[in-house]
Automatic annotation (TrEMBL):
Species per Swiss-Prot/TrEMBL record: Mucilaginibacter galii
Keywords, alphabetical: Pyridoxal phosphate
UniProt xrefs under NCBIfam families: PRK07811.1 (NF005871)
Gene3D superfamilies named among the record's database cross-references: Aspartate Aminotransferase, domain 1, Type I PLP-dependent aspartate aminotransferase-like (Major domain)
One Pfam family from the record: Cys_Met_Meta_PP
Full protein name: Cystathionine beta-lyase
CDD domains: CGS_like (cd00614)
Record-stated family: Belongs to the trans-sulfuration enzymes family.
InterPro entries: Cys/Met-Metab_PyrdxlP-dep_enz (IPR000277), PyrdxlP-dep_Trfase (IPR015424), PyrdxlP-dep_Trfase_major (IPR015421), PyrdxlP-dep_Trfase_small (IPR015422)
GO molecular function, one term: cystathionine gamma-lyase activity
SUPFAM superfamilies named among the record's database cross-references: PLP-dependent transferases (SSF53383)
GO term, biological process aspect, one: transsulfuration
GO annotations of cellular component type: cytoplasm
Amino acid sequence: MKFGTKAIHAGQHPDPSTGAVMTPIYQTSTYAQKAPGDNQGYEYSRGTNPTRKSLEDCLAALENAQYGLAFSSGMGATDAVMKLLQPGDEVITGNDLYGGSYRIFTKIFTNYGITFHFLDLSDPTIIEEYVNGNTKMVWIETPTNPTMQVVDIEAVAAITKKHELTLVVDNTFASPYLQNPIDLGADIVMHSVTKYIGGHSDLVMGALMMNDEDLYKRLWFIYNACGATPGPMDSFLALRGIKTLHLRMKAHCENGRAVAEFLKDHPKVEKIYWPGFTDHPNHHIAAKQMRDFGGMISIVLKDAGLDETFRIASNFKVFTLAESLGGVESLINHPATMTHGSIPKEIREKVGVVDNLLRISVGVEDIEDLLEDLKNALS
Ligand SMILES: Cc1ncc(COP(=O)(O)O)c(C=O)c1O
C-alpha cells in the first residue's frame, strides 16, 4: 500500500458490531473477563485499548515497521527508550537537539548513571571516536531542532550495526511522509505525534516504531509498567489527524519552499536554515534520505538584539507566537527563551541557538497571506 492509503486505512476496520466506519472511541478503563484470564486480549487500558491499538498499527505502517507504541507525549516515549539502559551505559547523541530531549538526558538520566556525549553528527565518522565498551545507544534527530542540521541516517546505521548499538531516530521534524529511518537502518523511530502526525495542535502524544520483536516486548513492558500511555479520545484524534497527513505534508513543503525563498535574500535576515537550499551543508544527504524538505525554517535576524527579536516575533497577524510545530497553522517560536530555554546559553550559542534566532513552522494557509504577514512583521 502507498503512503496516503495507509494513512487513511492502516490498522482501521469497520467496527464489527455496528459497521461504524470510523474507529470507535473505547472510553473504558477495564474489560469484562469470562473467567480470570479468559479475555479477548484486553484487560486494562493502561496496557491495551482497542482505539489505541488501531492507532499503533497505523503508526507502525506509516514507518514501514512491524510494531508501534503510542505514549502520552513525545517525552514519555523518550523516557521509555532511556529505560532500556542500565547505570554505566553511554549514549552518543547530537549537539543540536530538542531542548526537552537535552533536559531529560542531562537532568534526569545522568542522575541514573548514564553518560551522554553530545557531538556534531554532520560527519558521522566522529561516532567511532567515542564508542567504547559501555556505549549502548546512538540517538539522533534529523533535521535537527532548530538549526536544521541533517544527519546521514544510513551512515550512522552502518556504524551502530558494526558495534551492535541501538540506533534511535527522532523523526518528528521530517514526519514519516518525508523520511523512514527504519528503511535506512534505524532500530527505533521516535515521534512527537503532537507535531505533524497529529497535525492540528489539539493533542500531545508520542510514539515509538520498531521491527525487532524482542525490542518491542522490552518497550511494551516499560510502557505498561511505567504507564505513560495515551487515552482513547486522544488516540482517536491522532487517527483522525493522520488521515490527511500526506495532503498536509505536501502543502507544508510547498509553502515551506515559498517562505524559505522569500526570506533567503530578505534584508532583515542574516542567516537562514532550511535543508532544501543547495548551499545547506548537508543538502545532498537531505536530498538522498528525504522525499522533500519540509516546512520548518529557522532564521537569524540581522543586527537584532533581544528586544528587536521580541518585537518582530510579536508582530505577526497570521503566524502565532507559540511553542510547538507541525500543525496546520503557522507558528513562530523563539528557541532561546521557549523550546530551548532549558539549555545553558553558552551551550546553545555554540550550535547557533542565538538570541536573534527565530524558528518558523510554516502551516498550510494560503501562501499569499503568509508572505504578506512575514513582509509586514519584518518591516
Ligand atoms: C524534535 C522533538 N522531539 C521531541 C519532542 C517532545 O515531544 P512532546 O512535546 O510531544 O513531548 C519535541 C517537542 O517539541 C520535538 O520538537
